[in-house]
Write a structure and sequence with these properties.
Radius of gyration: 14 Å
Number of strands: 6
Number of helices: 5
Strand content: 15-25%
Bound molecules: S-adenosylmethionine
Shape: globular
CATH class: Alpha Beta
Distance between the termini: 31 Å
Largest sheet: 6 strands, mixed
CATH topology: Rossmann fold
Structural class: alpha/beta
Helix content: 25-40%
Number of domains: 1
């Protein structure tokens, strides 16, 4: 985990894209999300696709280990934010978006009760093989059954 924090501090974030993911735009309608639906973005970094969700009337709930990344997301996108501590997390909030700064594996089902979709871009694949199964199992354990 300290590895990721260091990468953000050193600016070694080659995975980050400043453009929207064209696949998201192509396939978002398949999810048939209603306006105001909440999209969970695990290991979100400062992914700009979260802006696309906001611009299209959805809410976003992200989780990211690096506080630097989280702060950069709000500052670079000129979103006025507030912060508050909640258990093991510091929550960064702006209109329709909360990013929980902390460890994804500390998330529990009660925090995702209002989530209708999950958006993973470069998250599962960024983890070492041994952690990928754990990531997927944890996701299935905490997302709402419907
Ligand atoms: C390859 S990046 C992908 C970021 C983002 N999904 C994107 O598309 O730009 C992986 C991100 O996961 C974060 N991360 C790694 N392990 C984590 C954990 N256990 N909990 C929360 N975030 C984590 C890292 O800090 C990093 O920002």
């Amino acid at each position: 985990m300290t590895d990721w924090i260091a990468r953000w501090q050193e600016g070694k974030i080659g995975w980050h894209k400043n453009q929207l993911n064209s696949r998201l735009i192509e396939f978002i309608d398949c999810l048939k999300l209603s306006v105001n639906a909440c999209v969970f973005v695990p290991l979100c970094g400062k992914n700009v696709d979260m802006l696309y969700f906001l611009d299209n009337g959805f809410k976003v709930l992200g989780v990211e280990l690096s506080e630097l990344a989280t702060r950069q997301f709000f500052v670079e996108n000129k979103l006025r934010f507030s912060t508050k501590r909640s258990g093991k997390f510091v929550i960064y909030s702006a209109k329709n978006i909360d990013i929980y700064c902390g460890d994804y594996f500390d998330f529990d089902a009660s925090m995702l009760s209002k989530v209708s979709a999950v958006y993973d871009r470069a998250s599962l694949i960024s983890l070492p093989l041994v952690l990928r199964a754990k990531y997927a199992a944890h996701l299935y354990a905490i997302i709402p059954t419907d």
